[in-house]
Amino acid sequence: MLKIAVFGAGRIGRIHAQNVVAHPALRLEYLVDPGAHVGALAAQTGARVVDVHTALGDPDIAGVVVASPTALHLEHCAQALDAGKAVLCEKPVDLDAGRARAASAKLGARDARLLVGFNRRFDPHFSAARSRLMAGDVGKLESLHITSHDPAPPSPAYVRESGGLFKDMAIHDFDMARWLLGEQPTEVFAAASCLIDPGIGAAGDVDTAKTVLKTASGTLCVISNSRRSGYGYDQRIEAFGSAGAIRADNLLQSSVSTWSASGMSSDTFQNFFLDRYADAYRRELEHFVQVIGGRESPAISFDDGVAALTLAEAAAESLRTGRTVRVS
Amino acid sequence: MLKIAVFGAGRIGRIHAQNVVAHPALRLEYLVDPGAHVGALAAQTGARVVDVHTALGDPDIAGVVVASPTALHLEHCAQALDAGKAVLCEKPVDLDAGRARAASAKLGARDARLLVGFNRRFDPHFSAARSRLMAGDVGKLESLHITSHDPAPPSPAYVRESGGLFKDMAIHDFDMARWLLGEQPTEVFAAASCLIDPGIGAAGDVDTAKTVLKTASGTLCVISNSRRSGYGYDQRIEAFGSAGAIRADNLLQSSVSTWSASGMSSDTFQNFFLDRYADAYRRELEHFVQVIGGRESPAISFDDGVAALTLAEAAAESLRTGRTVRVS
Amino acid sequence: MLKIAVFGAGRIGRIHAQNVVAHPALRLEYLVDPGAHVGALAAQTGARVVDVHTALGDPDIAGVVVASPTALHLEHCAQALDAGKAVLCEKPVDLDAGRARAASAKLGARDARLLVGFNRRFDPHFSAARSRLMAGDVGKLESLHITSHDPAPPSPAYVRESGGLFKDMAIHDFDMARWLLGEQPTEVFAAASCLIDPGIGAAGDVDTAKTVLKTASGTLCVISNSRRSGYGYDQRIEAFGSAGAIRADNLLQSSVSTWSASGMSSDTFQNFFLDRYADAYRRELEHFVQVIGGRESPAISFDDGVAALTLAEAAAESLRTGRTVRVS
Amino acid sequence: MLKIAVFGAGRIGRIHAQNVVAHPALRLEYLVDPGAHVGALAAQTGARVVDVHTALGDPDIAGVVVASPTALHLEHCAQALDAGKAVLCEKPVDLDAGRARAASAKLGARDARLLVGFNRRFDPHFSAARSRLMAGDVGKLESLHITSHDPAPPSPAYVRESGGLFKDMAIHDFDMARWLLGEQPTEVFAAASCLIDPGIGAAGDVDTAKTVLKTASGTLCVISNSRRSGYGYDQRIEAFGSAGAIRADNLLQSSVSTWSASGMSSDTFQNFFLDRYADAYRRELEHFVQVIGGRESPAISFDDGVAALTLAEAAAESLRTGRTVRVS
Lengths: 328, 328, 328, 328
Prior knowledge:
The structure is a homotetramer.
Chain A: E1 2-7, H1 11-22, E2 26-32, H2 38-45, E3 48-49, H3 52-57, E4 61-66, H4 73-82, E5 86-90, H5 97-105, E6 114-117, H6 124-134, E7 141-149, H7 156-162, H8 165-168, H9 170-181, E8 185-193, H10 198-202, E9 208-215, E10 220-226, E11 234-241, E12 244-248, E13 256-260, E14 263-266, H11 273-276, H12 278-292, H13 302-321, E15 325-326
Parallel strand pairs in A: 1-2, 1-4, 2-3, 4-5, 5-6, 7-10
Antiparallel strand pairs in A: 7-11, 8-9, 8-15, 9-10, 11-12, 13-14
């Protein structure tokens, strides 16, 4: 049994904590979170609530999941790596690409023990789509469409702390784009509006955006983001190649439909990431187990995290200027 | 231009008359129908209303579409064939299999000029399904499911004259079964109920039936008939082979769907045969043009009509006795 | 933690054992199986291999899962119930309806502690379909189609011991029919063939069957069974009501499809019951936990098991006689 | 019978000529085309080949379909309108927005007799989608995705004369966007590449483009264009509103699918506009008949044609500059 500490007992920390508990090879030893809400999770999982130093000082701890507030990610990662732990760090790695790049420069060999948690890469549907793409099933990739709409907007208070739509939400899609394009985007353009909640606009952010990426070879990518869908979690990709297209579609709650005088009506869509990415989080943790054991290299490096953050900053700059922003 | 006479100006006669008018190589010369309603169709199509003898006595008439009441089918076909015309005869060829068999015995060479109008064989969807089946795409056929549900029941008055569900409605499906099975059914079992309209029961008929056919080689076929669907015209086939299955599905009015908090909802289903089989009737007429010209043999012979009728009678007998009925 | 004993370490016993291990409120204490293969499962789960008497003599055992060979079901259920344990008994309850009815007569109050494992009732897709049906979404049920095709046939040796297609395989569908019809079938007809493996025929069984059920009110049900599909596990229902239809469809491995010059091609179908009914087995076990605790009555009683077995015997008799068999 | 002249016997002229012939209320009197290929169409349709003046000088000609080369559209429209004919003018109205605006200024009352042929507005699928949108089925529109990919690229020679991807191909999508947004786009951004045929690049054009439109109220629209799909004609819309989404999907050649060990495979996609928009062209002509008769105002005005052209020019400018272009 590998012993694990989870830093952060918020929404995402809870997912990881529960998956650690359910994993046959892992044991959740510690929860690190200064907030009162950690108590409930500790009671549910049987983990002990300790501070950072206690957790990292325990030589039996093999891995640390960093799901603390984003502002602490870099510090927590560095501390845990220095203590010799393997680290699974939640996205984004930071809210400032420059600071993240500086941190990257100091990582050195510790990089091989650090996995960034872009959970969607572990989604079986997106994995299957990418496998078909990489196998050349539709020839050479020419363009890519990513749809990523949340069911309902977060509060303006959340938005204010989040780093904004590009760093908080679209960052997943920037990583997906890089993963599927197989090539770095070199140009970024973004258009966006605040259409859903004026409070989001008052917080200085947008809630609806279309971002266009272009790679050196000319491959184009469109990312559609919305903080609201009205029908559930809209998470789709379409990859257009020289010989056809590959799609990963949304998922419904069941295969049931009703046929009536008004046509065919399905079951409801899966509502949000807890449903849609339940498997992805489990497969991500399984990969982390392999990283801890040194049997696999991290599928998503710190530099992948920096690259996604760089695209997010470029999109925000394009939005301010109305111009294409070049990324090196 | 080939000149055509259409016998019968009812629902089906009208379809044929309009298709003749729209066909670039055909001219609708005569309508034969003693009823007053023929006037409107004549006005619309520009055809002349005449009696049987006038129509058949005109040496320029190349083909006759027999869409008169079923009781007149045998007589009209014989008269038209004797007058040297090619004939497209609507289903069923008669309401009595014995009488139809006797008529068949007397046909002789005239058979090559007589096409029976099982329109579904010309449906592009069913044709495509059969092509895949005959090409061996799913190996050897093991069983076949035919779903054939009307949107809404006819009046009990219609039912009383119709010959009953098996001869009036399921006769299409018996022909489809023979066409797709590629082998004669030798055993017939039917179970049925009157669930939709007690008036249909009072007319001595059923409105909901499940018929099981078995061929000499053991292939099984289930036909589901209902006089009501609640959602439109349900016309589907599923063919299960040793290496997979082939389906032909229902059609919707458009490709539009709405995604909402209650899931995905499509457009309405095509309502009835005027929509679903519009192409089939046109392709059937096109084949008839080729039969008239001697370039193609009738795809559906009189004996095909007799065979479907024989199965209908066997189903009715099985329903009375609760036993499997053997058909030779 | 409730302590559980699992009787039988075969294919189904393994599923239950693993689900017990993964359930947060259960502990797998004992495995009972005289075969050598039990060792691997014991090693994997940490359970002890003991004999029936040891398992039932332990007062801490709260529930017993009976997944032993069918011939032992009645005896094991009786022993476990007599020992005061709650019991989850796999289907079929026995291979002889008369013997099962006799056992039923002796159950008395112990019935409230006995759950029969028709796992499909716990499938979320079928549950959702039934909820829509019971809510009257399509009016009054008029007919029901159940498709139940396995991906590939079992060995003739398995078939020989299985009780035959109706008791081994279709028994699930007889239970589904009863559950969805909301009314007892009173007439049974079956047609069947041996088309897939002559060895199955030599073992006295069939591998392809169509069964028609009719209830007192005239509702009709068709069950299609095949021991082979060529495409995976085909588990579908269609319920036709007075105002529309409800379907539960098959499941694919992912939502990915490829669009090419040959059309649209999906991912593969879920292969067999380990995939398709993984959730159902978990939900069934969760219900058993509630039954153990006395918080829920068994959703599927011993008499439900007897009723399905009675329909299976009627189907077999109909197959022998070619006649409709009445069931009371 | 209304007599019609068709100017231009190319690919689109042929469609209109054949639809005129098949329309019960129309008669194709003249074809106007200086090329030799007009002979075959004349022979097929029975129309006479004449020059512009003869056609327009015939007082019996009620309507003119202008499907001549784009460079002649403005001149032919003006001549026909001056001669008192109703006009159906193919897209684009011209290759120069300034010239088209000047022509618009001179139209005056003749505008009421001029229909611009953006055929997709008459497509039943897009019409149905728009009806749902306008009925408020998904609340207020927030963003719109238009996918418009041809099956295979035209020759570089065609491209060179075409006005380029934005004026030749995307012009349809600019019109669709205006029609569905219900509001004028005020900002345009385009990114594009030449990925399919270097000859298209050598002709100064692109073959793959993503265009982003934004309206004054902030609604966003993405148009995806490709000269090649590998699977047929990809013509889809997705409209995202405050309460859900509406989609119009692609069409397949039939409803047939095969289920096998590799999953489900459909029939092929409809290949190109002759299939997909056959109904749209017929419904467009039917509307033109109503315009000729003064019973309906043109659904698509000359100014609609100018507006689409203006967006096309803005997209081209954005492509050159890498900046958002404002459109008034």
